[in-house]
């Protein structure tokens, strides 16, 4: 007699955890780099407190640290993407939307990307033609997502309903 299958086991659990860790580390690095830039602009040290040489060295060091954090975060996201491609693990659409597919930057609205809703229909009269356009501030790449359009079902789900057969009852004459 065979053992019953256990439910809840995920195949390739170490790979999923590696991909999750890479994404979380990249998100942490990129948010700390952007948060430091906003905090340092608010808190400017007084000239009386620090000597001029230390003030110049500190101001040169901050952008370099932010740039290093952004590049490390970008490298982690590149590794995450390559790991998922090599192992054929599908990333969720929510994660894909937060990564620029051209430069692998984590897209943070207002900091590393800008979002605009665009309607190119004549006079913007068609509300179903709204498109969310996300522009990466690093490379200038565009991502376009329909806002209110119904998504097409995946191929296996579509093939369950045979083509040519309708779900409506046929009338007998």
Automatic annotation (TrEMBL):
Composition bias, Polar residues: 164-173
Name of the protein this chain belongs to: Uncharacterized protein
Family note: Belongs to the eukaryotic/archaeal RNase P protein component 4 family.
One annotated GO biological process: tRNA processing
Species in which this protein is naturally found: Pestalotiopsis fici (strain W106-1 / CGMCC3.15140)
Highest classification ranks of the organism: Eukaryota, Fungi, Dikarya, Ascomycota, Pezizomycotina
GO molecular function: metal ion binding
Region (Disordered): 150-173
Keyword field: Metal-binding, tRNA processing, Zinc
Classification via Pfam families: Rpr2
GO cellular component, one term: nucleolar ribonuclease P complex
């Amino acid at each position: 007699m065979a053992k019953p299958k256990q439910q809840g086991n995920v195949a390739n659990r170490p790979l999923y955890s590696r991909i999750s860790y890479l994404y979380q580390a990249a998100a942490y690095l990129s948010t700390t780099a952007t948060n430091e830039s906003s905090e340092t602009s608010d808190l400017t040290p007084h000239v009386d407190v620090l000597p001029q040489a230390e003030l110049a060295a500190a101001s040169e060091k901050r952008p370099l640290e932010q740039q290093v954090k952004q590049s490390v975060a970008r490298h982690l996201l590149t590794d995450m993407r390559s790991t998922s491609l090599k192992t054929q693990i599908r990333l969720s659409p929510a994660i894909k939307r937060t990564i620029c597919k051209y430069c692998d930057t984590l897209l943070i609205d207002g900091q590393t990307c800008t979002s605009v809703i665009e309607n190119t229909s004549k006079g913007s009269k068609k509300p179903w033609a709204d498109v969310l356009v996300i522009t990466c501030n690093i490379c200038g790449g565009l991502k376009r997502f329909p806002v209110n359009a119904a998504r097409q079902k995946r191929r296996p789900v579509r093939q369950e309903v045979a083509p040519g057969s309708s779900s409506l009852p046929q009338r007998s004459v």
